[in-house]
What we know:
The complex is a heterodimer of chains A (270) and B (255). Chain A has 270 residues and is mainly α. The radius of gyration of chain A is 18 Å and the shape is globular. In chain A, 82% of the residues lie in helices and 0% in strands. Chain B contains eight helices and ten strands. In chain B, helix 7 packs across helix 8 (242-254). The longest helix of chain B has 16 residues, at 176-191. Chain B is globular.
Amino acid sequence: xxxxxxxxxxxxxxxxxxxxxxxxxxxxxxxxxxxxxxxxxxxxxxxxxxxxxxxxxxxxxxxxxxxxxxxxxxxxxxxxxxxxxxxxxxxxxxxxxxxxxxxxxxxxxxxxxxxxxxxxxxxxxxxxxxxxxxxxxxxxxxxxxxxxxxxxxxxxxxxxxxxxxxxxxxxxxxxxxxxxxxxxxxxxxxxxxxxxxxxxxxxxxxxxxxxxxxxxxxxxxxxxxxxxxxxxxxxxxxxxxxxxxxxxxxxxxxxxxxxxxxxxxxxxxx
Amino acid sequence: xxxxxxxxxxxxxxxxxxxxxxxxxxxxxxxxxxxxxxxxxxxxxxxxxxxxxxxxxxxxxxxxxxxxxxxxxxxxxxxxxxxxxxxxxxxxxxxxxxxxxxxxxxxxxxxxxxxxxxxxxxxxxxxxxxxxxxxxxxxxxxxxxxxxxxxxxxxxxxxxxxxxxxxxxxxxxxxxxxxxxxxxxxxxxxxxxxxxxxxxxxxxxxxxxxxxxxxxxxxxxxxxxxxxxxxxxxxxxxxxxxxxxxxxxxxxxxx
Lengths: 270, 255
């Protein structure tokens, strides 16, 4: 009986996290994709894995560890990018491989078993805790407030950074804030979709929505719809058949993208 | 009407880190109602000058005043409409409609998620008609031709009712017919609506025929005066070299 309740609470926690991530991920993804910075999500996921490893080392909740390290990593990426001494995508390579290497070493030193690591890499619904949900609710409040207040500014920055500067937007400050919030979302997303499949959650629904060739707002709403569809279907399939949730969510996101791409084929402009 | 300059530049020099001077001792004034075209070969410093005027590069030597205020303390950017060069560079996928791009020009005053007060819609409607982009409003910005895209960005700039338009290479990637139409639009904005124009271009011929005042740059100011003066042999030679002058001669006589 106790076990059943425990099972139920855990189910509700992970359902809540999945639902919220389905809403927040495309908001982050949209601005990453249009600024040609899609790989950032992957990089932040790898940085988050380092946070998981450090969390295990110091016996702090791993989501908290992932969030702290992801924010530091996100800040570092943005500073390196703003210094303009290294190309944006090369910056990502530095952080992606660097943090993965250190994370793997820390896992090895702590004798973390393969199954547990696999859970972080591919997502594990059973690992979601009440703390994860509480943290995500806080992130959601911060992110939605940030987007509500800065939507037009983010749009102009996506159009052209210099134009935004001339229009009086504090571009570097806005980009840094965006990066920090994106880091928090990714750090929690790895619980559900895993480090390796974060892009499926952040980028694929946006790409699918873009195939319909609407304007910015419609594309954003459509990508949230696609994202929720993929997350919910993937969630229940993973739950029902005991499959890795990252894989099922990614596969449904991918299906939506392929469908959108093919359906709009005749209208495509090359 | 007072003729206080809109842009006043004194003894401006600029150097990128570990490179030679790209601008040296540049001084000039742009008066209200002027239509100034800046021309010069690649690397002559014309884009650097534009970025300094827009506050996109830090001022190191010399001074720039915008509307009578030093650029360091200038904050009235609504008075300046900036039209960047070729924003989408062939990226057809950018998911925004022309209307959304134009609306984003109401920076600072917009409501969130694109709901505008009715009052603010007036200059927007006016701007749309002034540059004749009404038929394009629901098209996606990336699918427009270079000339159409530039007109959209002019409309975007116009909705904050600027007194000065600054354009960076506005006719790059625009075909000949589009270029003619574009320059006549600029002329109309300048003469009928009194908007001061400062544009940077590599196209000496187009500027000589369209601008009122010309600035020829090659690190230093080679020429600053009436646009017709751009045709003189001395100006072209000192900016572009002797062969360029011959080419222009052949072009002129062939017309």
